[in-house]
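tmp note - proton-translocating NAD(P)(+) transhydrogenase
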Amino acid sequence: KKEVVAKVVEPEDPFKIMATKALTATGVSAGMLGMGIGAAGDAALTGNIATFALAGAAGYQVVWGVAHALHTPLMSVTNAISGTTAIGGLMLLGSSSTTATLLAGAALGVSTVNIVGGFVVSQRMLDLFKKAGDKDYSYMMLGPGALLVAAPFYNPALIPATGVMSSMLCIGSIGALANMKTAQAGAYIGMSGVAGGMAATIAGMPASALPLASGLMLVGGGAGAVIGKQVSPIALPQTVAAFHSLVGFAAMITSIASNIIHPNASNMHLSATILGDFIGGVTLTGSLVAFGKLNGNLGSKALNLPGKN
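out:
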């Protein structure tokens, strides 16, 4: 009889573990300091960097401890929230540049497809966990959204506060998806957060851009709702991947439009547009490959492209 030799697992070196963590923290700190230097003298940009850093840290923390069964719904809701790339399209829609306006309009349209379709798909996924006879009043979490949508139009001075609260709801939505008992409410909290953020942006737009923005959102949202409702339940995961590719596309063309409108922007601004274009491209192609694999159009082996992604 062949004797099976147990593998000896070498204990991890605590020095290497801590050194890696320390170097990572130092690198992130250096990166933030570099961004601070690039934004020196620009109060608005400095505020945006602070928001970006805090939101990233909060989002990183809330995804810990997610139940394995909720990983796919969590990805679906975060994907729907990432459709707030629509806000970038809204902000650039009133530009004097025709090219930039076309790009911003396209970003707004595909982003609203992702927002509405993403939340419809998320809700359908979460409904699969419901038991017969379960009473669900999670829809009441749309109440904060109704308030946030009305607030910036009632008083434009409430636009900043609406944006902050909407961001908090989006983060809270992701946190709620970590637990089966609060997952249903989490989807509705996310809807409220996205709706508030969109409303805060629209309330600050020039009136001349509102008809075009409304039309694009209506068409995009309608298309997303139809797709989200008609897709087969077994095809929901690949639908999320397909929707997410729209986010990457929107990020790319919004970055390009911003560069067109601000050709003489600061180095910090230009760096942000380059990163937005690059990360958007990775998201677009990566999501399309994920869709192809989940849908059976591509093999399950790692896709090895010349030059990579």
